[in-house]
Write a structure and sequence with these properties.
Jelly Rolls, 7-stranded antiparallel beta sheet, Immunoglobulin-like, about 50% strand, 24 strands
Length: about 350
């Protein structure tokens, strides 16, 4: 992984951040180092760098290695989601060469993930992400949709079926791209999708509790005893630049502020808002009343701006915390602010 960007670890709300300093990070898997990739869920298999010869087909524009993912042990019911970057990434273009399947014996497809955040609490599923997949197993379509499946209606809260008649659906390597942008004027997120440079259109996500930033990543799924293998190469994430509807100077805070979480008391999750008036190393931590650290929600270089993030009531070991009082502590250099909050059960 060639990582050339400083990233952050909270969820952005008011000021569009994008990737730090307008830089780029890429992954071609040639050095076999996948240490900066992350599992969406802890029980998933990790992404691997394998020999190009072990892929179903050689990618002419590839090297000796490709990325490989698969839910072999069915820990995630055939779904494999692997992420890179940071939960604070916003307003970026993600693209990759993807091995696409055609007429698989069971429902199976591969694609890209955008704005993935496993820490959020969606209305129908823990966490939130959006994926663009090539669904060529008889459906003749692309699908752009989130992971929030309402089992009573068997529909997703954000879903678009995109006709694939105008593209080459031959099984093999194809290039997929998503330009994702947060629209602060109306609090929506836009996904502009491409396949082999064919424009598939722009689609707006205004669904309940959708993310405003998140990890990029890769996706593979097969509805069978185990997941289908996903193969990826020449993975790149680049910043989109400053949106026209954001005036960063006008929106800059004049002081560091930590607002009272809402709701408070809360169960199971609560939202924490804060302002940073000067860029720098910022930490946001949760402590119990004994002064013991429960969870670090942010600890990195953050530019000045206004932020909002969600705490789901889990500690750093992934365990649900007990009912009681907790303290939020926001610190930057010698500055420190705190507020108390109450978890109910």
């Amino acid at each position: 992984m060639q990582r050339k960007v400083t990233l952050w670890t909270t969820v952005l709300f008011v000021l569009t951040l994008g990737l730090a300093h307008g830089q780029v990070y890429t992954e071609d898997f040639e050095d076999s180092d996948v240490s900066e990739w992350q599992q969406y869920r802890l029980d998933e298999e990790m992404i691997q760098a394998i020999d190009m010869a072990d892929a179903p087909q050689e990618l002419l524009e590839g090297g000796d290695k490709v990325g490989y993912i698969q839910d072999i042990d069915v820990s995630y019911t055939g779904v494999a989601v692997l992420l890179t970057g940071d939960v604070m990434d916003a307003d970026y273009t993600i693209e990759s060469d993807v091995y696409v399947y055609e007429n698989a014996p069971v429902s199976a497809y591969t694609g890209l993930i955008a704005y993935g955040d496993s820490s959020r609490q969606g209305p129908y599923s823990h966490g939130y992400y959006v994926k663009l997949v090539a669904d060529f197993d008889g459906s003749n379509r692309f699908r752009l949709y989130n992971n929030q499946l309402n089992m009573s209606t068997f529909s997703y809260t954000f879903h678009h079926s995109i006709d694939a008649d105008i593209v080459d659906k031959t099984e093999g390597w194809h290039h997929m791209k998503i330009e994702v942008a947060t629209n602060w004027a109306d609090s929506t997120v836009s996904y502009h999708c491409y396949y082999d440079e064919v424009d598939l259109g722009t689609y707006v996500d205004d669904s309940a509790l959708h993310t405003y930033a998140g990890h990029p990543g890769v996706f593979a799924f097969q509805q069978d005893a185990d997941g289908i293998a996903g193969y990826f190469d020449n993975f790149t994430v680049t910043p989109n630049g400053e949106p026209d509807n954001v005036d960063p100077v006008q929106n800059l805070p004049v002081s560091m502020t930590l607002r009272q979480n809402y709701p408070n008391p809360f169960n199971p999750s609560t939202t924490i808002s804060f302002d940073i008036h000067e860029s720098g190393e910022v930490a946001l931590r949760i402590f119990n009343i004994r002064g013991e650290l429960v969870k670090t929600l942010a600890n990195d270089y953050i530019r000045s701006g206004s932020y909002e993030l969600n705490w789901d009531g889990f500690d750093s070991q992934g365990q649900s915390v007990a009912a009681g009082a907790y303290v939020i502590v926001l610190s930057r250099g010698n500055e420190q602010l705190s507020r108390s909050m109450l978890m109910l059960k």
